[in-house]
Specification:
It contains 18 helices and no strands. It is mostly helical.
Length: 429
């Protein structure tokens, strides 16, 4: 295929991807679901799950193999921008000064699903072998599967909290605060898992770890100081500053990718070290600009991720594993979060609402699964199972929240779901 023909196909495929993803997102919102659900379904539909059911000429015309590297590149660009914003919005002050309730809920909602995931991977290894998991499954693979059940998607969670009128209430604040803590620990464990799994860089693990520590030290030290001076300098216009920050995010993503890790870790760290406003708030112009660019490019990530998902190829064993994984994911998250909240003397309705909110996975889960697939920690069929699990658990969030509203709070409980609380407050006792 000539370069001109390749570009023509890429432009046409981009039009199909953007229209399909935004149509799916619009329909999803109409059905009371986050737009991310519809966009993810559209991405899966544009992969083998649907195109394999059509004449081969259709798939070859829409997405010829020649444009696959370009679509992958666009998907990685979208991930860098998205994770940079996630890191920038991530408030590390959650790690200190938090209430006992937030810490208790976050610990339980991360540790219990991890133990459940690791136990399930070891106990039900037989069915997993039918999905391409080797008999001698590595410790990294077991740990990754455990982390996959522990993730909470903070960006999707914030949307769910806002759309359900829970912003500023006890369950909303506690769920978002606990999810922020879970994110910090989850990304750290995921980083260690992928480092341990090895890579094709030819570096030994000690050397990679040393270089990673040097990189982190540079990021939190000199790089952060330079960025603070840049962002607070009155002589720097908004657009050049935005371009420098985006370039900084890509440079950090390149560094972690060169270390044999995923670009997501460098982008996330770049966002974390980017200074906030002097009063500790986010720069609204920066967030708005990056959100706009990221929203435009994220559909490419959904399509590239969907190309590794083949629903039609799932056999009976895979369907059974999907059902089991989904049940475990929901029960472990909702149960651990709700019981931890009850242990902190919150009422039944509030506790169940917190557990349900923490079960939201969505895009963060998909990013982690994509990284695990590239690192060889997941087989193709198992990747499909976990992507569908992430979709199912996110779809279940809204119906489960409706059920939570029907739960009557116990008389005499000190907290109620309707009680407002300041987002900046510690969050409960």
């Amino acid at each position: 295929m000539s370069p001109d023909a390749t570009v023509t196909h890429l432009v046409g495929a981009s039009a199909v991807i953007l229209i399909a993803a935004n149509a799916g997102g619009w329909l999803s919102r109409k059905l009371g679901q986050p737009s991310i659900v519809g966009q993810l379904i559209a991405g899966i539909a544009l992969g083998p799950s649907l195109l394999s059911q059509l004449p081969s000429a259709v798939g070859d015309t829409l997405f010829p193999q020649a444009i696959a590297p370009m679509l992958t590149a666009l998907s990685q660009v979208s991930l860098v921008l998205f994770l940079y914003v996630v890191g920038y919005e991530l408030d590390l002050n959650l790690l200190r000064g938090r209430s006992r309730a937030t810490l208790t809920i976050a610990t339980a909602a991360f540790a219990v699903p991890m133990l459940v995931g690791a136990g399930a991977a070891l106990l039900f290894h037989g069915p997993l072998e039918h999905l391409g998991v080797p008999r001698d499954m590595s410790a990294s693979s077991v740990l990754f599967l455990a982390v996959a059940l522990s993730i909470t998607a903070v960006p999707v969670l914030i949307v769910v909290v806002r759309e359900n009128g829970l912003a500023g209430t006890v369950p909303g604040v506690l769920a978002v605060s606990a999810a922020g803590l879970i994110d910090v620990v989850g990304w750290a464990v995921l980083l260690g898992t992928i480092m341990e799994s090895g890579d094709g860089s030819g570096m030994s693990l000690p050397l990679r770890l040393f270089l990673l520590l040097v990189f982190v030290a540079v990021m939190v030290g000199p790089a952060r100081l330079v960025l603070r001076r840049l962002m607070r300098s009155p002589g720097v216009a908004a657009q050049p500053r935005l371009a420098v920050l985006i370039g900084f995010a890509f440079a950090a993503a390149w560094a972690t990718s060169a270390l044999g890790l995923h670009v997501i870790f460098g982008a996330l760290l770049a966002g974390v070290v980017t200074p906030r406003e002097p009063d500790g708030t986010l720069d609204p112009e920066l967030v708005r600009s990056l959100d706009g660019i990221g929203s435009l490019l994220l559909p490419f990530f959904f399509v590239v991720s969907g190309r590794s998902v083949s629903v039609g190829a799932l056999g009976g064993t895979a369907v059974a594993v999907l059902g089991g994984v989904t049940v475990l994911a929901v029960v472990a998250k909702v149960g651990s979060g709700a019981l931890a909240a009850r242990a902190c003397r919150l009422d039944r309705r509030t506790s169940l609402t917190i557990g349900v909110l923490l079960s939201t996975r969505g895009l963060t889960e998909l990013i982690a699964l994509n990284a695990g697939l590239q690192a060889g920690l997941l087989s193709g069929p198992l990747y499909t199972v976990f992507v569908l699990m992430a979709l199912a658990t996110t779809l279940l969030t809204q119906p489960l929240l409706v059920l939570c509203r029907r739960v009557r709070a116990a008389d005499g409980d000190p907290r109620s779901s309707a009680d407002p609380v300041s987002v900046a407050a510690p969050g409960g006792h």
